[in-house]
Design goal:
two-stranded antiparallel sheet, elongated, mainly alpha, 2 strands, 2% strand
Length: 195
Amino acid sequence: MNRTTKHSEQAADPVRMLGVYLNDHLAGAGAGVALFRRMSQTHAGTTAGRRLTELAAEVTADRKSLREIMTALDVPLMHHKILLGILAERAGRLKLNGRLVSRSPLSNVLELEAARVGVEGKKELWRTLRTLSRTDPRIDGEAVSRLLARAERQADALETMRLPALEHTFHSRPGSGNSPAPRRGGISWRRSWAH
């Protein structure tokens, strides 16, 4: 068997591909947990901070659910992928936000958007597992459907926070000292996010 043939057989192995797929999502989930915890700590004592703390707990539970599904499917952990996820989250903290040493209002927008991208990816994971549950009894399709519904609520909550963050960041009048305090979903931007 030549090297090319061996490589194509490995690539076509659905069990191996599922293992890689689930480990990629587990790595992303680890990065997501770290991001949500960091955001909730940054905004501690605010309405947004309390909601982010709730979301951080949910995202942590989602990661645990994924790990349980992987165990049920006999999918081993790929520790190098988990490490890469942690490094990616830490590298994300170095993104440019218009300021060198302090947080800027743009940091809120970028973090909320990164969190939303992660939740959208998680929704696709749950959809995939729900599809696989139709032919694999080891996957609880009803439980996965509940996880999908929760991810949809998480995405909606993040969007509810992102919209006023956009207004606060891009519609404030420079130098006026007065930034708008729009309301979206009952959350006052100034009360929720200002430091």
